[in-house]
Structures are given as structure tokens and as C-alpha cells.
Amino acid sequence: MLSFEKCKWSDIKPAYNSIIVGNGLSISIANDFRYGTLFNHAVELGWIDEDAKSLFEYLKTENFEEALRALSESNDVLKIMTKSENIKLKDAHDKIRQSLINSIGGLHKNYHSVEHSIKKLALKIKEFDYVFSLNYDLLMYWAVIESNKSSKNSVKDCFFPTGFPSDWKKYKTPYPGNTKSTLIFYPHGNMSIIKKGNTEIKAKAEVDHLLSVISGHISNDEKPIFISEGTSARKLQSIAGSQYLSKVYFECMGEIGDNVAIHGWSMSENDKHLIDRVLMSNKLRKVALGVNGLDDRKTKEWERKLDKLFHNYEPDVKVQFYEASEFMK
């Protein structure tokens, strides 16, 4: 059973050691990451062709994942009915997915234009033991770099030139001279995590050059590991095909514990695999959820949504709503 209350973030923060952040956090720093802005950019540069644009108009959306879901589900139906994959639908799916990657890269702010916010974010992530970022952009990567410039709390993504280690848990131990460690993971991938042949690497460069380094990888046909499939089932299938993502999903997310904060994540149906993973251990007892404009209408909408998402979960969970704008203060 769920119970709900409104709280101040500063009052409840000490109870939360894990956080999941979504695109709402990136939008609060750089408004260009809104789907509408990304979509218009892709249309203007011709990455969204007329057929794809008609699909978005038919669905009455500018959300790339909704369009990708519609194409995936249509192709699944056709495969059942015709015993073969529809090449046109698959090509349209791949082009829309690539246009999303292109738009994020094309509209991405440079480091210095968001440096003030990155420094604030760097301080925030150090307050947690585990951070799970669902965002594709580089803002969190930059915050990790910033947080490690001068601190006795190191932030680690556990990614090394040889890849992601099987013994990643040992990095929770602070380095000599440090008092704490924060581990950060990307359950849906990130622009900075690159598929290079059969290996998965992390793009590395100084903050000023990271975007151009990633562009160089992409021009060499080395693709970012980037989960944007339209349905939860397809996302989980893609996660299973990546060594890094599968470890994050099946191992790292098991460390979330009994209290988790959620900031900027819409918890949509196409992310049900993540919600199920959080609930899988039957440990969860408390959720802090950031809501923009903490009024009764919005909290009631969230209450209905969470009741549906948690309906098979037996333990009692207290949901603490907080005003989302308080998080970065």
C-alpha cells in the first residue's frame, strides 16, 4: 500500500542515499533538451523526413520515444501476420533514433555556458552513495569531472580503458585520504559510452573537447550506447545486448536499497523495466519524488500513476513529494 505526503527536500534529503535522475534534470539546466526543441531541430536540418514527420503529426507528439514505440509495435504486428520484418518500418525506426542522437549532439551546450549549473550539480551528486542517470547528454559526465577536482568524496563511474569491471563493488571503498565515494551509472547508456567493434569504451577528453571527441567516434561509425527504443520490452532486450548496461541493470540497480529519490524522471510505461527492477528486491519502503509546482492537481495525478505502477507490490511504501526546483538550490 502507498501513502503520500508533501515535504521540503531539505528536510527529507538525509534519508536518501540513492537517486534516479531523468531528463527533467537536464531540461532544468539546458532547455534545449526538451523533446519539442530536439524535434524541431531535427526537422529543420532534414533528419526527420516527410514520412516521419507525418507519423509524429498523426501521433500528436514531438516525443521521439512515442514515435519509436509506434514503429516497433507496428513492425511486431506485421512480423506476426506476414512472418517477415517490414524493412521500411525498420529503416524509419533507425533514422528517427539517429536523428535523436544527432539533435542532442547538435543542440548540446558547451561546458562554459552551463558551468555554474554543473558546479551546483557536482555538489549535489556527492550527497548520494549511488546515482543512476537516465540522461543521454554530457551534463552528468561534466559534473563528475567537476566533483573530482577538489574533494574528499570521489565520484566514480567505474569505467576503465578495459571496460566496466566485474568487481565494480570494490570501488565503493573510498580512495586513501577520502571520506566517501559516490558511484554513478547510466542504465540507458550515454553519449559518452561508445560501442567500438566488440568493445564498449568511455570517450575521454577535457571538458572543452568532449563533444568533438564524441563526434569523431560517431563519424568513424562508432555508435553511442544509447537506449531509446519505444517499448519497455525492447529497451530491456537492448540492455541485455550490452555488457555495461546489463551489469548496471542486473547488478548495480540491486544496490538501490530501501529508500530512493527520483528527480526529473516521468516513470512512463516504456520505462516499466526500470520500475520493475527497483521493486524486484522487495526492499523499497520510501520514495522521494520531485514535482514541478507542488499543487494538489499534480500530486493527485502522480498518486494515480504510482498506484497503477506499484499495484502488485506488497510492502508498504511512503511517497514523499517535494518541489522539484528545491533540488538544485
Question: Would you kindly provide a written description of the structure presented here, covering whatever features stand out?
Answer:
The chain is an alpha/beta fold and 329 residues long. The chain has two domains: 2-30 and 112-326, no CATH class; 36-107. The chain is built from 13 helices and eleven strands. The chain has helices at residues 9-12, 23-29, 35-44, 50-59, 64-82, 87-107, 115-125, 139-147, 210-219, 232-240, 243-250, 272-279, 296-309; strands spanning 2-7, 18-21, 130-133, 153-156, 180-185, 189-196, 199-202, 223-226, 259-263, 286-291, 317-323. The protein has an eight-stranded parallel beta sheet, with helices on both faces. Helix 13 links the parallel strand 10 and strand 11 (317-323).
Distance between the termini: 32 Å
Write out the strand line-up for the largest beta sheet, numbering strands in chain order: 1-11-10-9-2-3-5-4
Which residue ranges are poorly predicted, with pLDDT under 50 across at least 5 consecutive positions?
A: none
Largest sheet: 8 strands, parallel
Globally, the shape reads globular
Separate helix tally: 13
Q: Count the E strands.
A: 11
Q: Which range does the strand content fall in?
A: 15-25%
- What does the radius of gyration come to? 20 Å
The total domain count is: 2
The sequence of SSEs as H and E is EHEHHHHHHEHEEEEHEHHEHEHE
Protein name: DUF4917 family protein
TL;DR?
It comes from Chromobacterium amazonense. The protein is α/β, with parallel strands linked by helices and about 325 residues long.
